[in-house]
Amino acid sequence: MSISKSKKHPIVGNILAELQGEDWKRIRSITSPVFTSGKMRKMYPLVRQSVEGFMNTLSEYLKHKQVIDVKEMYACLTMDVIANCAFATKTNAFKDPNNAFVVNGRDVLKVSKGKDNINDESDRHESYHNNECEEELKMANKILNIKPSNKFITEDEMIAQGFVVFIAGYETASTTLSFCSYELALNPDVQQKLYEEVMSSLDTNGEIDYEVLTKLPFLDAVIAETLRLHSPIVKIGNIAAQDYRLGSTGITVQKGQTVEIPIYAIHHSEEYYPNPEMFIPDRFLPVNRHKIIPYTYLPFSAGPRNCIGMSLPEVRKQKFP
Ligand code: HEM
């Protein structure tokens, strides 16, 4: 999946990933607080409801020794979480694939991919991102520091930001979960270690507290390594808002020029990741993180136009250097 900025459409053209300049700043500053840790904590019981439905369905399959389509199951889970958290509605997607929300949600995605070549996306930068250094956060703050009088949103823009949740969150999150399961199946030792970490974090009711969940280092490492090896967004292309000299390289990026960042190639480079084709979550454990060179881990991009939804799939709380 790659991202390109397309021509303006009343709804599609207003989604955050498509906007430029002042409109982007205004909408970004309004939408990004959706994923503050406070809001995430409130969403957690809703996510758990969906996960319970998912687990019950899996148990049924297990009872009858039925073969399951993992990608399909995770697509239902992701759809259910999105419906529950963003649209306050239940889909029962596991049992009812004909649910109107599920059917229309998937149709919308097909249309947006086919017609507009938007194969992609859809708190404040409360980022736990690998490469999100202080300087970068300050820059993002400065950019987003818009006047309160500019904090408005039109109806079309509001609809567009609802729509973005599908195109940005649905495919990316379900693909990540599918690849994570695939890698755990291929690497039983990793699976066992993860199982032990999760089991040791259960409380007396057999549940995991949100605060505990967001601080499990191995779970965090497994997700981070899945996103490195199987990044759902393989490259991004951002348009320069102004002429920009790249340090002492002698290269000036001209205003309006598209700069493409080959995320997949960077993540699979031997130069940055020894044995790049191998699934090695330990690379992302706290003791090893300092070895990761800034801006070589980019599943959510970096800088002010990074992913606003990254704290949803990537639950970690620890800051990287
Ligand atoms: C594993 C899951 C996800 C991955 C790998 C991912 C990846 C990315 C990447 C690489 C970008 C940068 C695009 C660019 O620079 O052109 C991005 C932007 C974006 N993402 Fe995500 N994303 C994920 C989940 C989500 C979710 C769940 C949401 C919202 C519910 C979301 C909302 C957005 C939005 C709105 C943007 C555009 C930000 C802007 O242009 O200011 N993403 N995402």
TrEMBL record:
Its cofactor is heme. Coiled coil: none annotated. One of its GO terms (cellular component) is endoplasmic reticulum membrane. The keyword Heme applies. It is a peripheral membrane protein. This is Cytochrome P450. It is found in: Endoplasmic reticulum membrane; Microsome membrane. Heme binds at residue 307. Keywords: Endoplasmic reticulum, Heme, Iron, Membrane, Metal-binding, Microsome, Monooxygenase, Oxidoreductase. The keyword Transport does not apply. May be involved in the metabolism of insect hormones and in the breakdown of synthetic insecticides. It comes from Medioppia subpectinata. Its main location: endoplasmic reticulum. GO terms for molecular function: heme binding; iron ion binding; monooxygenase activity; oxidoreductase activity, acting on paired donors, with incorporation or reduction of molecular oxygen. Pfam families: p450. Belongs to the cytochrome P450 family.
